[in-house]
Amino acid sequence: MTDNVLNVVLGLIASAISAGLGWLAQVLRRRRRIERVRAFFGLPSGGECLIVVPRSIGTGSHAHTVTRRDAYALMWLAGLVEECGARPELVAHDAAHRGLGTKTELCLGGPVSNERMAAHLAWGLPGAHVTSGPGPGSNVIVVGGHDYTADHDRAHTLLARIATPDGGRPVFLVCGQTGTANQAGVRYLVAHHRELARAYGQNGTFALVLRVVNPEAYGPDMVELVADVTAEALERPGARSGAA
Q1: Which residues of 39-57 are buried (b: 16+ CB within 10 A; e: fewer)?
Q2: Which of 69, 148, 167, 229 is the most exposed, fewest CB within 10 Å of its CB?
Q3: Rounded Cα distance, 141 and 147, in Å
Q4: What is the pLDDT of residues 139-169, one digit of tens each?
Q5: Is 30 helix (H, G, I), strand (E, B) or coil?
Q6: Do the Cβ atoms of 170 and 41 come closer than 8 Å?
Q7: pLDDT at 70
Q8: pLDDT per position as a tens digit, 209-234
Q9: C-beta separation of 195 from 188 below 8 A
Q10: Which is more confident, 23 or 110?
Q11: Which among 56, 145, 42 has a CA at the least distance from the CA of 109?
């Protein structure tokens, strides 16, 4: 074998090794990324996840009708679950009669359209509640003495993760004032899960208020973090005055 042929063979071997190492590095990076996502959402490969579906509260809507925006949000959630190698189970808000911690739960919609959401807020975030009524501006998220009102220029979402007893699977709440706010909250959760994991740990509880800017013009794309209301949302009404 001449020197030229040997050099060609060695070059091909080096290229193959380099390509193989690059492919392996990509596989390992993707695997680490997926493992971080699984850890944050409590979604092991082969596990199950409960996605609680709200009902549409529009006039004349059927009891099991879902709005178009909520359907988009559910598609994002189902895609996230399947990316982790888990199995999503969609359950109507009034049919999810089961305990907490055995499965990760993703609960979508405000307490008016989702009975399960109302129960989670009362149990896990007693300092947060939503007022509602027939008039404009009556759908208000109230946390820690602050009122977050929706109008044509803005809508809000209460985005939260609640740790369950004994280290069980977490509960995620996306409690938006509108269907667009629900969709924006889901997209924010999927896009910012790394920052949330760094800030609150893999098993921590958090509650955030997000603002959707001019949803009529921009849909769910313009989202701002308004406040971290974790401490206020966890505080039971009357606890501060009782302590005083």
Answers
A1: ebbbbeeebebbbbbbbbe
A2: 167
A3: 6
A4: 799 998 889 988 888 999 999 999 998 889 9
A5: helix
A6: yes
A7: 83
A8: 999 999 888 888 899 999 999 999 99
A9: no
A10: 110
A11: 56
> Roughly how many angstroms between the first and final C-alpha of the chain, as a whole number?
91
Helices and strands: H and E segment counts in the chain: 8, 10
Which residue, chain included where needed, has tokens 């739960």? 105
DSSP 37-77: HHHHHT--TT-EEEEEEPPP-STT--TT---HHHHHHHHHH
The residue assigned the tokens 């109507």 is 92
List domains and CATH numbers for the chain. Answer: 42-243 (3.30.379.10)
Q: Which two tokens stand for residue 178?
A: 């509108």
- Residues 81-132: tens digit of each pLDDT: 888 889 988 888 888 788 888 999 999 998 988 999 999 999 999 999 888 7
Q: What is the pLDDT of residue 244?
A: 44
Per cent of the chain over pLDDT 70 is: 77
Q: C-alpha dihedral over 135, 136, 139, 143, to 10 degrees?
A: -120
Q: Cβ distance 206 to 158 under 8 Å?
A: no
Cα 193 from Cα 99, distance rounded (Å): 25
Q: How far, in Å, CA of 69 to CA of 75, rounded? A: 10
* Dist. CA 185–CA 156, nearest whole Å: 9
